[in-house]
């Protein structure tokens, strides 16, 4: 019980599920207080649980991105305000554009309601972006790549190659430059670029083919073959699942279609597609080196995020005036909203503190 | 079929899965133009699609790699994704110049549509992972750039020499504008909001309005926000990069593809 809460990296999938739960909760409301509370929850957990790795600093970028989204949204309301009824705050002159531009009117009277509508809607998108940013800052991307489903094993391997091969380019560039410094060659701009780019690219491809030979020698790609019937079942599941998704998407958009084709069809399509992915993954047999283990904090973190999402959905369905507040009154929050936020924070803080340089050093000192 | 289109073979079943997934993805991209709701209902942007699109992309990738990929193809896929991600990371520093499509188009051309599709997905995903830039926009970007790579592989194969470069340059321009437009279409209602009955807000998406009206509003929006700037810069970069570096990079890639795709059989010979 105690060991699970020692400083360590939480399973990245748990962080992603937690963040997606928060983002889902945000998508069901335009209440600015709920949204700000969600942002606060995400920021609190990120501050207390992030590691000292380079990706942990990315949260700040997402927050600025969120601010930019809100500003853009409000500016659009200001410039393209049109006639939005309500209390006029600022009476700007109207600039009608020619008919070819869809009869758009620039500027015009700025009403409090127009600004608030822009602010609320922008805040919702910004909150979703910031919640996803929290996952980016908390989850280790390299470990995330190791937990791709088996059906995407090859694609995951290609991505691991892509992420690990990057530092080699710097080395490649240095060697090519050093070699070219020793002899004459093209001096024109384009000529120099060719002279530089082709060897670097060739070098990269040479190395990759050498690595492929190494992978081949170590038995990569000796997948357990599936029988014809199994492959046919995989294909049928995938095709049927995608058909279900196509029909469901269309029915969700066109409300004149029977409702049975909308949400139930989407659920069916997703289930079939998942079954197809599982079935396709059965051909890959591999062992994992030091697999990330699922322990109880992982489950609690996921439950916290999902609980917040479910409560957000419930508020959106049952307490419409709180989820989508009127623009003329001060928005309020309910007990359910606060419970959702509390779940999100409590779930996130159940995670053990991240392993930092200091904690790692302390640990090795204990073992030494 | 020439040897070069076998990098990631597309069986008839894979083609069907790809087609269906593209259809579903396209519907999720252009949803504002398909939406039909009764008067006066509240319309929210369908955040649901942000969750569904990754599932669709995963299914296609699983199907395309279902027969198992050759390690050499896989290694080249990884390296080219890394180069693309690097180009993307460098691009914002060069005053909005986007270098992502250049190698994607050339590699799709050399290695075929299946490889182009997968490379489009992996490049964008790798660059998002490296810059910690995973966001709701990622699945859309992955899907559309996968189409860009696949389309390059579907160009007529017999073109060679200058005609080939010219065709690729034209394709680069079309791809740049289409990419910008589709990305705008997917983000338009999210960024600008949805028209609320009784409240005028020009340039916002009006649910249930005739297709022509919404298309016109969107046309003005995309023209104002990006066609003049970003998209044109991206198109010009594509053309310049393809014309200047295209021939050399193409021959480099073709050499690599010959080495990566050569397969032989060892026939048993009677011992003398």
TrEMBL record, chain A:
Please state where this protein is localized.
Membrane
The record's GO CC annotations read:
plasma membrane
Q: What is its main location?
A: membrane
Keywords from the named record: Membrane, Transmembrane, Transmembrane helix
Regarding the membrane, this protein is recorded as: Multi-pass membrane protein
Residues passing through the membrane, by range: 15-47, 59-80, 122-139, 235-253, 259-278, 299-316, 328-351
Q: Where do the coiled-coil regions begin and end?
A: none
InterPro entries found in the cross-reference section: ABC/ECF_trnsptr_transmembrane
> What is the protein's given name?
Unannotated protein
Biological source species? freshwater metagenome
Automatic annotation (TrEMBL), chain B:
Signal sequence, renumbered to the chain: none
Q: Which residues cross the membrane?
A: 15-35, 47-65, 99-125, 137-156, 168-191, 233-253
What InterPro entries does the database record attribute to this sequence? ECF_substrate-spec_UCP037395, ECF_trnsprt_substrate-spec
Q: Which GO terms describe its molecular function?
A: transmembrane transporter activity
Family matches, as Gene3D superfamilies:
1.10.1760.20
Q: Does the keyword Transmembrane apply?
A: yes
Keywords of the record:
Membrane, Transmembrane, Transmembrane helix
One Pfam family for this entry, by name? ECF_trnsprt
Instruction: Write down what this protein is called.
Output: Unannotated protein
What is the originating organism of this protein? freshwater metagenome
């Amino acid at each position: 019980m105690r060991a699970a809460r020692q400083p360590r990296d939480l399973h990245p999938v748990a962080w992603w599920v937690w963040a997606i739960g928060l983002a889902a909760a945000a998508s069901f409301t335009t209440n600015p207080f709920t949204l700000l509370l969600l942002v606060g929850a995400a920021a609190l957990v990120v501050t207390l649980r992030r590691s000292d790795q380079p990706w942990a600093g990315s949260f700040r970028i997402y927050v600025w991105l969120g601010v930019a989204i809100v500003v853009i949204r409000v500016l659009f309301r200001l410039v393209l305000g049109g006639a939005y009824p309500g209390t006029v705050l600022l009476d700007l002159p109207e600039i009608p554009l020619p008919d070819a531009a869809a009869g758009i009117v620039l500027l015009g009277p700025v009403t409090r309601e127009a600004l608030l509508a822009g602010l609320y809607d922008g805040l919702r998108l910004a909150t979703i972006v910031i919640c996803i940013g929290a996952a980016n800052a908390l989850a280790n991307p390299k470990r995330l790549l190791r937990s791709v489903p088996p059906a995407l094993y090859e694609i995951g391997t290609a991505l691991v190659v892509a992420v690990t091969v990057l530092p080699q380019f710097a080395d490649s560039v240095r060697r090519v430059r050093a070699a070219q410094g020793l002899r004459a060659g093209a001096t024109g701009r384009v000529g120099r670029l060719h002279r530089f780019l082709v060897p670097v690219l060739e070098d990269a491809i040479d190395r990759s083919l050498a690595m492929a030979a190494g992978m081949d020698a170590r038995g990569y790609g000796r997948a357990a073959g599936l029988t014809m019937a199994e492959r046919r079942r995989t294909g049928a599941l995938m095709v049927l699942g995608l058909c279900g998704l196509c029909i469901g998407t269309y029915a969700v958009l066109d409300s004149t279609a029977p409702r049975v084709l909308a949400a139930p069809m989407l659920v069916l399509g997703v289930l079939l597609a998942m079954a197809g992915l599982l079935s396709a993954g059965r051909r890959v047999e591999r062992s994992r080196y030091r697999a990330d283990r699922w322990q109880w904090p992982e489950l609690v973190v996921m439950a916290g995020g999902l609980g917040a999402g479910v409560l957000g959905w419930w508020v959106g369905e049952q307490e419409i005036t709180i989820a989508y507040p009127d623009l003329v009154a001060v928005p309020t929050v309910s007990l359910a909203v606060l419970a959702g936020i509390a779940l999100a924070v409590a779930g996130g803080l159940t995670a053990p503190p991240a392993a930092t340089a200091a904690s790692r050093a302390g640990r090795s000192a204990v073992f030494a | 079929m020439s040897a070069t289109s076998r990098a990631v073979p597309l069986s008839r079943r894979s083609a069907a899965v790809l087609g269906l997934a593209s259809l579903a993805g396209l519907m999720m991209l252009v949803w504002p133009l398909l939406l039909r709701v009764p008067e006066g209902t509240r319309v929210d942007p369908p955040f649901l699609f942000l969750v569904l699109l990754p599932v669709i992309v995963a299914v296609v990738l699983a199907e395309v790699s279902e027969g198992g990929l050759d390690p050499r193809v896989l290694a080249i896929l990884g390296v080219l994704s890394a180069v693309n991600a690097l180009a993307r990371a460098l691009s914002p520093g060069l005053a909005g110049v986007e270098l992502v499509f250049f190698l994607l188009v050339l590699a799709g051309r050399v290695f075929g549509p299946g490889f182009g599709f997968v490379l489009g997905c992996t490049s964008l995903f790798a660059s998002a992972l490296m810059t910690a830039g995973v966001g709701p926009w990622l699945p859309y970007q992955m899907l559309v750039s996968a189409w860009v790579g696949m389309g390059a592989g579907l160009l007529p194969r017999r073109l060679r020499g200058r005609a080939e470069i010219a065709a690729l340059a034209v394709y680069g321009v079309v791809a740049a504008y289409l990419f910008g437009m589709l990305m705008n279409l997917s983000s338009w209602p999210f960024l600008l909001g949805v028209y609320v009955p009784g409240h005028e807000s020009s340039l916002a998406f009006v649910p249930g309005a005739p297709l022509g009206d919404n298309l016109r509003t969107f046309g003005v929006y995309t023209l104002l926000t990006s066609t003049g700037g970003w998209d044109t810069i991206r198109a010009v970069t594509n053309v310049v990069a393809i014309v200047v570096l295209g021939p050399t990079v193409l021959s480099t890639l073709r050499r690599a593809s010959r080495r990566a795709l050569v397969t032989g059989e060892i026939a048993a010979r009677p011992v003398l």
